[in-house]
Amino acid sequence: MIRIRDLHKSFGKNHVLRGLNLDIEKGRITVIIGGSGSGKSVLLKHLIKLMEPDSGTIEFDGQVLGRMNSRELLNFRRQFGMLFQESALFDSMTVEENIAFPMREHTRWSKAEIRARVREKLDMVGLGEVEDRLPSELSGGMRKRVGLARAIAIDPQYILYDEPTTGLDPIMTRSINRLILDTNAKLGTTSIVISHDIKGALKMADRIIMLHYGDILAAGTPQEILESDNETIQSFIAYDVKGEL
Ligand SMILES: Nc1ncnc2c1ncn2[C@@H]1O[C@H](COP(=O)(O)OP(=O)(O)OP(=O)(O)O)[C@@H](O)[C@H]1O
User: Fold this and answer.
1) Which of 13, 31, 41, 215 best tests ligand 1's pocket when mutated (most atoms within 8 Å of CB)?
2) Pick the CATH number of 2-79+156-242 from 1.20.1540.10, 3.40.50.300, 3.60.15.10, 2.30.42.10
3) DSSP letter at 244?
4) Please, which residues have CB within 8 angstroms of residue 95's CB and are 6 or more apart in sequence?
5) Cα–Cα dist 111/223, whole Å
6) If you measure from the C-alpha of residue 26 to the centroid of ligand 1, how many angstroms do you get, rounded to a whole number?
7) pLDDT tens digit sequence for 108-152
8) Can you tell me which atom of ligand 1 is nearest the CA of 34?
């Protein structure tokens, strides 16, 4: 269980996270939605300590993130896979080297073992013989899949997805959403997804969190979000769900 309590973060006068409280259950898919600039990415960065809060706490299974020593922090980071926006692959490395990267950083697996595991992860994300290609030689959808293969390289407990389907066509969007669901089911991971894809969120989420000006406007099952009588939520989902222009 991840427990976030009274989290505040400002950049100068821009008070981005405003006393955010949130519990995220293990093994589930939590999708975070909300308008541009509402603080979704900032929240995600706090979870892996890429950003420090001004005040408030984040606990993973009772362990407070800010109080970990460097060894605990290294172990902690090992439990995370992250699929960044734009996939964030290393351009000068091949697909195989990209996926092998976390394995080399965090494990003592042999070269042969790493090679076999890279193949296994590529199979999981439905990619064929692309090990020797460079990211620039792949389509955007393929790069996302390689990014996902890298995110699950060392079977993390948590996977964070930052807008995994932004910029993809509807078919690729569906297929990446399917992959997120399958990965969650196969690896039993806790998945936290930031998304602008409301339809996808309603289909795959166990729980949807809506952020609004750095606080939580609503949290609930897809059904609860759909049935909410809050005007801001309704106008946020109107275009995608009701097809309103
Ligand atoms: N490193 C930073 N320095 C200064 N301001 C920042 C920094 N990172 C984020 N912000 C500000 O924090 C606010 C929230 O940004 P964030 O990226 O979390 O939004 P978001 O909800 O993910 O938006 P989007 O859906 O457009 O990606 C914005 O006003 C942004 O300008």
Assistant:
1) 41
2) 3.40.50.300
3) -
4) 122, 127, 130, 131, 132, 133, 134, 135, 138, 146
5) 47
6) 26
7) 999 999 999 999 999 988 898 999 999 999 998 899 999 999 999
8) 21
